[in-house]
Amino acid sequence: MISIYDGPSFEDSDAFMDVHTTDIGTLSQCKQGAPGNPAGSCRTLGWMNGYQSGAIQVPPGGVSTNHCVLPNAAIAWKQPNGFFYPPAFHSRNLAFQNVDIRHFVVQPLWLPQSFTPDLKAVADTYCTWEPADFTQFTDVDRQTELSDDDGAITGLVGLVSGLDPGPTQPEPSISVTKDPFYNAPLVTPECASGVPGAEPTVDTSAYQYVTTAIFPTCAGPTARIGGCRANWAVSCSNQQCYGVPLYRQFLTVPEFNAYTADPKDRPSIRMMGQGNGQRSTMTVNHGNYYIDTTLSRADQSSASAPNVFLPNRAYEIYFVFATPQTRQTYSLYIGKVTQAEAMATVQPGTVGINADNFPFTPNPSGNWITNKHYDTTTGVLTVTVDLSQQASVFAGDKPKFCQPQTYCSIHNDGSCGCAPGSTDCKDDSVCAWSNKEIDCPIAGCFGFTVTMPTSFVAAKQPNLPPTPIHFVGDPGSDPYFAKGTVQFFNVNQSISGAQCHYDTPPVQQ
């Protein structure tokens, strides 16, 4: 019914009725392709959409009696989309009646840490498919987010104890792609997010998310001297671009056990996107991440468009759609230098996003960098950013996003609504969404640069990426993830509907 591609997108007061999946036959009726060209095809069944990849097996597993179902959904994500992904989608006041799937997300099925299709997983998940189904997808397509402001989709809202006034003013719950990279201590499979009898395609999370972006100043269109475009691809919207590997350092107990058994088994994603040199991905608030700067061009030979970090170059790390609650920690290898040299590589500042050179304005007194640490043994620099002291900046700039000024203006209560006397605006909600999400303050996105030392060489290092730690209980973990700090609250059945009503909300184990 609603297909989301780019954003931000705000959805208000929609009703979805009589949206049903369609059973088009069984797997035994959907014949396999010829030897050497394996595929699943339901063309003989007489359904137009049975010709297209995507009919779901119910249940999964490749059994001949499994049913083949078209996953018609109320809200779905159109994939692939290799460009910047904003965590700024909102919905409120939705109603569902006689709907099989409320929210559906297509997830690329690859072998771990690669773009190689996992054909067994594909054949076990779909009745109609082709070996090349996911060759146009990138890691941008592993991230979707939908903020459920009132719990009408998920039946849940979130609350962070100590940061919010109480359950009467909850945070939205977040519908996030069911991907290992976005796992966390308190997420739960989202109701009505998959074909009944098959796997859910979405998780409901109680946490906030922010876009983390990285850009080398030497890759801008005006960087003539010392430019690095030969080593840093401008476009990274397809699988020919390697991207920048990003590792999640906080692990759940099952993830840590899997990592202990096999150190290669750890959550990661490649920062990709856009045709201007920027690399980005969505990250969980209060997260701890490692940016892999150690890959040489030879290490990235599988892709024709590399992302190689170079000495004497400054790399901007900044946050889009951040809030005063945003707190992030990032580590990266900068080589073996002295403590003083390592500390000097970091410069707080703001990044402009209205030009393709992403101009950086240094702010030596920037108090959003709350901690810097350098390990002389490993050559790893760690920086923590906390925007809690920037609340006045966000509050002061929010009214400036009340647009268009021809018929929207700030009301006395601080909300954006119809301008007094406007004949073009009759409903305040027309304007209210315009400043719901601020991509960056007017002066620019908060962030910092790291200038690689002269001695830096991009080369694989022993014991990197660093050893991860548990979300909860280990030295260096964040109290934000401690049990009871972030909670779910269930909403009234009159809002969620019986299909997604929780008598008892999920809790952190």
Key features of this structure:
509 residues, mainly beta, eight-stranded mixed beta sheet, 7% helix
Give structural notes.
Helix content is 7%, strand content 29%. The longest helix has 9 residues, at 253-261. The strands form 8 sheets. Strands 2, 8, 11, 12, 13, 14, 15 and 32 form an 8-stranded mixed beta sheet that branches. It has a 6-stranded antiparallel beta sheet with strand order 20-16-22-30-24-25. It has 509 residues and is mainly beta. β28 and β29 form a beta hairpin. The model is unreliable at 162-168 (pLDDT under 50). The protein is globular.
- Helix count equals 6
Q: Quote the average pLDDT.
A: 92
Helix residue percentage: under 10%
> Could you give the count of β-strands?
32
Share of β-strand residues: 25-35%
Determine Rg (CA atoms, Å): 24 Å
Tell me the major beta sheet: 8 strands, mixed
Question: Which spans have pLDDT < 50 for at least 5 consecutive residues?
Answer: 162-168
Global shape: globular
Given the helix and strand composition, which structural class is it? mainly beta
